[in-house]
Amino acid sequence: MGKAQADIGLIGLAVMGQNLVMNMNDHGYTVVVYNRTVAKVDEFLQKAAKGSRVIGAKNLKDFFSTLKKPRKVMFMVKAGTPVDELIEECLPFLEKGDIVIDGGNSHYPDTERRYQSLKEKGILYMGTGISGGEEGARHGPSIMPGGNPEAWPHVKPIFQAIAAKADDKTPCCDWVGEGGAGHYVKMVHNGIEYGDMQIICEAYHLLSQLLGCGPEELSKIFTQWNTSELNSYLIEITAQIFKYKDTNGKFLVDSILDVAGQKGTGKWTGISALEQGMPVTLIGEAVFARCLSALKEQRVHLSKLYAPPQAVFKENKEQMVEDIKAALYASKIISYAQGFMLMRAAAAEMKWKLNYGAIAMMWRGGCIIRSKFLGKIKEAYDKNGDLESLLMDDFFKKAIVASAKGWRHTVALAALHGIPTPCFSTALAFFDGYRSAKLPANLLQAQRDFFGAHTYERTDQPRGKFFHTNWTGTGGDVSSSTYVA
């Protein structure tokens, strides 16, 4: 040890870390690795990394002395306190100009804090979102780098080499923005992933419960959908899931318990939407749908107390499959429109210069939400970089108009038959609200003024001019400027 020969170092040899190391090795980079449990380093070198250029370090001193300057160190450890602890452990070995990259699923405010704190010490911190799971890490993930812009030129060749490539060979990796921007974009990606998965599940629920489609027929439907505008990784794997048989010869999907897990990134997206005042309703409902699925025992109990509606399905089956597809596609458009609106609001607040077309391209390959559809988002932002909403773009307008009838029919029929479609329904409600020139919030403002003197604006007066009414004749004319009811 001691000779500076490694291009980059990686700490944290769980599966994602190991796969990223081997990906870098494949692309000609020499990587030095370290893990707190040193036995993992030996095991990795003897198995997955055997015969490669990968160097193992037994301690942090050896690890850092093996790195070329400026030293580039990537963390692949659990988000939260472990990242802060690792930074503290590495600080004695770090010098000004060194680059620390957090490749985990960190919450963006943590990344923002670490970026500022290390900037004061002259260390270049990067918060980098990585999507694509184990397979992506090994053969080409989607990479969303943010943090200190001075670090980007040093890591750009490595990241763009190991990233997935879109159809036109563009790397699914580009600079996102300063501070916590990379992890924020990854958080929204994960929120959209929650939405995509839930709307696919709602289509499945309707196809199986309403139309009586079994796993083989479902697999055929999803395989066909994957050749259409719905072409995506999640639709593709769903088709495969339906036809997979268990060891007993039965379809495995029917034996899986209907209780969903979650790791929190969808929840973070919902919380951020509330903080930004952005109606990201579909992702919120997708998170709540998982929460509701967890109440299994209560659901079983209530299923015995409440009979389903006695509706009779009399529709044309083939047409209904098309209508469900329309609902899925329209809801997907709404979800992405909401996600990009949220990123736009956060960028304005945090003063990030996000390139939305580039973000869509970063998601075109390698990641879980990769789909043909993302190319259309890039085209929309190429035409108008300041686009307020995807729903204002001609392509998405035509797609929504074409899908609207089937979408409405699906949501209405689901309600009549008592089949929950939280995301299909909230997407439609959002769309109808967003396209309405007038909403009933005038009454809401009257109520707020009545009980709390919160004032209101008038349709016959300029915006920004506020009025208060003494509704009862006894409350006085003083309006509230600070009290919030």
How would you sum up this structure, described in words?
This protein is α/β, with parallel strands linked by helices and 485 residues long. It is 52% helix and 7% strand. The longest helix has 34 residues, at 317-350. Strands 3-2-1-4-5-6-7-8 form an 8-stranded mixed β-sheet, sandwiched between helices.
Descriptive labels:
485 residues, alpha/beta, 19 helices
What topology emerges from the helices and strands here?
Layout: E1 8-11, H1 15-26, E2 31-34, H2 38-46, E3 55-56, H3 60-65, E4 72-75, H4 81-90, E5 99-102, H5 108-119, E6 124-131, H6 133-139, E7 142-147, H7 152-162, E8 177-178, H8 181-209, H9 215-225, H10 233-243, H11 265-276, H12 281-293, H13 296-305, H14 317-350, H15 356-362, H16 373-383, H17 394-416, H18 422-434, H19 441-452
Parallel strand pairs: 1-2, 1-4, 2-3, 4-5, 5-6, 7-8
Antiparallel strand pairs: 6-7
Helix pairs in contact: 1-6, 8-11, 8-12, 8-14, 9-10, 11-12, 12-18, 14-17, 14-18, 15-16
Assign a percent range to the helix content: 40-55%
The total count of strands amounts to: 8
Largest beta-sheet characterization? 8 strands, mixed
Taking all Cα atoms into account, the compactness measure Rg is 26 Å
- Poorly predicted runs of 5 or more residues: none
The strands making up the biggest β-sheet line up spatially as 3-2-1-4-5-6-7-8
How would you sum up this structure in a few lines?
This protein has helices at 15-26, 38-46, 60-65, 81-90, 108-119, 133-139, 152-162, 181-209, 215-225, 233-243, 265-276, 281-293, 296-305, 317-350, 356-362, 373-383, 394-416, 422-434, 441-452, and strands at 8-11, 31-34, 55-56, 72-75, 99-102, 124-131, 142-147, 177-178. The chain is of the alpha/beta class and 485 residues long.
